[in-house]
Design goal:
Elements (H helix, E strand, L loop, with lengths): L1 H50 L24 E7 L2 E11 L4 E5 L6 E3 L5 E6 L2 E6 L12 E8 L3 E15 L2 E16 L2 E5 L2 H7 L4 H11 L7 H14 L3
Antiparallel strand pairs: 1-2, 1-5, 2-3, 3-4, 5-6, 6-7, 7-8, 8-9, 9-10
Helix pairs in contact: 3-4
C-alpha cells in the first residue's frame, strides 16, 4: 500500500514537472516568434517610412501642353521593391524629365522622389522597371537611369525615355512642351543590343532575318509610325521560331 502511494506521488511530481517544462518551452518559443515578427515589422515600418524620405519632386516654372511621365501623369498603384522589402499598392509614376520614380505621400500633399540607392524594381500596370547602374549587367551599353521592360519573353525589349523641356512661339504666344527621346534595347543571349532603326533590329536576329521580314510584312505594322510596337512584334516573332 505504501509502495503504491509512493509511486502515485512520484508520478504526480513527474507530471507536474513535465507540464511546467512544456509551458516554459512554449512561452520561450512564442516569445521568439513574437520577437522575430516584431523585428520584421519594425524593419518593414522603417523601410516604409524611408520610401517617403526623398526630396520633393520639383515643380515646373511654367505650364506645359504635355507631361514628362510614363504613359500618364496620374499616380498608379503598383509593386515596389525597396531596400529588400516588397510593397504593394504604392501610388507611383516615372518622371522622364528628372529621371526619377516619385510617390505620393499618404496624406496626398506631396510627391517625393524614391531614394535611388535603395530602389530595386517596380511594377506598374505589368511594366517592369529597373534602375541600371554601371556595375549592372549591360552597364557598358546601357546608360545610367531607369529602364522599362515593354516585352518579356525568351528575349526582352527595354526602353529608356528622356524628356527635355522646350518652348516655341505659337500664334504669337510662348508655348512650353516636353520633347520625348526614346532609346530601345533588345536583350538577347545575355546581352543588350541598342536599336537605331528597323535594319538594326533584323541584324540582331540575323539567323532568322528572312523569316522575320516575311512575318513582319504580313503583320502590316509600320516601323516609322510606331517603332516600339514594331520592335516588340519582331522580337516576338523571333521567340516564336525554333531557335
Amino acid at each position: 500500500m505504501v509502495q503504491k502511494t509512493t509511486m502515485k506521488i512520484l508520478f504526480t511530481i513527474v507530471y507536474l514537472f513535465l507540464t511546467v517544462f512544456c509551458l516554459n518551452a512554449q512561452r520561450r518559443t512564442d516569445a521568439q516568434v513574437i520577437d522575430k515578427n516584431s523585428e520584421l515589422y519594425f524593419k518593414a515600418s522603417t523601410n516604409y517610412a524611408s520610401i517617403y524620405s526623398g526630396k520633393q519632386e520639383p515643380k515646373y516654372i511654367a505650364k506645359t501642353i504635355n507631361h514628362p511621365y510614363l504613359d500618364t501623369q496620374e499616380f498608379r498603384t503598383g509593386t515596389l521593391c525597396f531596400d529588400g522589402c516588397v510593397y504593394t499598392d504604392i501610388p507611383m509614376r516615372l518622371n522622364h524629365y528628372i529621371d526619377e520614380i516619385t510617390v505620393i505621400t499618404p496624406n496626398k500633399y506631396f510627391s517625393v522622389i524614391i531614394p535611388r540607392e535603395y530602389f530595386e524594381y517596380a511594377i506598374i500596370d505589368s511594366l517592369y522597371i529597373i534602375c541600371n547602374r554601371p556595375e549592372d549587367v549591360g552597364g557598358s551599353v546601357l546608360q545610367d537611369g531607369y529602364f522599362v521592360r515593354i516585352y518579356n519573353g525568351e528575349s526582352e525589349v527595354w526602353k529608356r525615355r528622356r524628356s527635355v523641356l522646350n518652348s516655341r512661339i505659337v500664334d504669337n504666344e510662348l508655348e512650353h512642351y516636353f520633347e520625348q527621346y526614346t532609346n530601345i534595347y533588345v536583350y538577347k543571349d545575355g546581352a543588350f543590343f541598342p536599336v537605331s532603326n528597323k535594319r538594326s533590329v533584323f541584324k540582331i536576329f540575323a539567323s532568322k532575318k528572312k523569316e522575320l521580314k516575311r512575318k513582319f510584312k504580313k503583320s502590316e505594322i509600320k516601323y516609322n509610325i510606331d517603332p516600339e510596337k514594331a520592335i516588340v512584334a519582331i522580337t516576338g516573332f523571333y521567340d516564336e521560331t525554333d531557335n
